[in-house]
Write a structure and sequence with these properties.
The structure is a single chain. Helix 3 links the parallel strand 2 and strand 3. It contains nine helices and eight strands. Strands 1, 2, 3, 4, 5, 6, 7 and 8 form an eight-stranded mixed beta sheet that branches. The chain has a single domain, classed as 2-enoyl-CoA Hydratase, Chain A, domain 1 (Alpha-Beta Complex). Helix 2 packs parallel to helix 3. The chain is α/β, with parallel strands linked by helices and 286 residues long.
Amino acid sequence: MVGFLRRMLPKRFRKEGVIVPVVRLSGVISSGGGPLRQSLNLAGVSQALEKAFDMKAAPAVAIVVNSPGGSPVQSRMIYNRIRDLAVEKKKKVLVFIEDVAASGGYMIALAGDEIIADATSIVGSIGVVSGGFGFPELLKKLGVERRVYTAGENKVILDPFQPEKQKDIEYLKSLQLEIHKVFIDMVRERRAGKLTSDETVFSGLFWTGGRGLELGLIDGLGDMRQELRKRFGARTRLALIAAPRSLFGRKAPGISLGNMGGLGAGIASGLAETAEEKALWSRYGL
């Protein structure tokens, strides 16, 4: 009854604390997901972001980032969406890093007007990586003949069933350098006046939050709840804004369940994706 009467009072007479919306961005960044994992992408987080920025009374929006990286395209799309909403809604964005914000995860963190991490968080890894496997001798051992027909001399570039070619590697490297330059430009723009002159920040190395602060990659060390209460008062409350869920409890949209008609293939693909995801986290000791 007391709560009902309090809500009936005009806001200026209520003794309520500030409410800060919180959006969690966690996971490997990828355009789609498999049967065994969920991916972090724009489709999956856009509604939660919009809902958070639509809270007119909130003095800021808190974004929690915990990602080892992934797709540079999805990373930039999430980054751009956060910045567009921040400008449109005139909201300050505070990014809080949990275990790791590396590579694409750090690219997303750049959307914050301020970036705050734990002293033991992992930050950085400003670089580009491509990986895969080569099986040029496998088919011979299996007695299988692979037949590929193309129109265009480069349609089978980097084919894992053909011997590696130097010109293919050089071409891939040129693409990586282009993407790396885009990443570097983003960091220099968003961290202008804060970065040290140490060019190792763009080498692909990663650091603890403490060292990241010294390098200018983040703005401070701290805990989200304590930091927000220090800024907006002891009565500050955090409102977690989650992605909407479907009838079956899954996040929607942004999660692909794979081809149910090929369940075995989907599970095999999911196992490979899970292994790759584990490898990304393991690179940072997680």
